């Protein structure tokens, strides 16, 4: 036996490889628990036992027990006096109807990306998406694709609304009276930022089929009177003018460098002198070694987009400079957020 194992030198073990290799199992535990609506059902009760879950769902007790145990092992459930109750994490983010309900993102990832990632090798070999065919469709954002028309905007909202909270708490929006959120999805950022900044007015700009959904989502928020929505195509049209700031979160990563340059030039043209563009992304580090969330999301751009990629702050800084922006600042977030890890702010001189 190698004595170094017991003298403070950590032995090399394949355990980290196991955690990587079975990552898909962990993803499925969460998705299946949500499929049974477990966390919403357990919320506000004194918990559930395997026998009760089995009875409610018409299952055998063995799978019910194994599922509840796996959920507890992942920190989704706690066990109190023999009964499984929601953990703090599950109660806050996995109960339907809560402001930061995250379940729609989990469901989208499970229904669309789980199978798609089974074809990751094809995407890597072919340098093309596997969820749609760029030879027959013009863009990923196709309302004829049922998952993109319905599940995707809801999933984005589920991830974006807390990411917007992190942005609201990390950046100071007091200097801006008006904000245009380009590719703003269901208005998650506009809604959340306006809730944090009562002086702010915001406009979502997105494809017409998304804007229809954004209007419905925003109508349910207490800031509906300060957020509106404009439908359009940012490649076919100029962007609306007259805003103090333009927000681009998780939009540039969908496109290649030329399209990013086009979009940033349109932002520059739409802003007045002194206007600010804010780019929020899951940035890579400048060395190109991580972090995991951004790097793996980058591979998802390969699976889902024709030529998108996650990029570093340095790469976006170069793009912003080329588009004519100055005073480029990096801002981190005060808390981890699901869809972005910071922002770049840049000014039009
Ligand atoms: C990855 S999502 C990001 C949404 C939102 N900013 C967020 O962070 O959650 C990209 C958004 O760009 C929108 N989009 C794609 N192509 C567009 C176009 N040509 N014109 C306007 N919006 C577009 C999509 O509909 C989608 O809402």
TrEMBL record:
Residues 19-95 form the O-methyltransferase dimerisation domain. Residues 117-325 form the O-methyltransferase C-terminal domain. Pfam families: Dimerisation, Methyltransf_2. This is Methyltransferase. GO terms for biological process: methylation. GO terms for molecular function: methyltransferase activity. InterPro entries: COMT-like, COMT_C, COMT_dimerisation, SAM-dependent_MTases_sf, WH-like_DNA-bd_sf, WH_DNA-bd_sf. Keywords: Methyltransferase, S-adenosyl-L-methionine, Transferase. PANTHER family: O-METHYLTRANSFERASE.
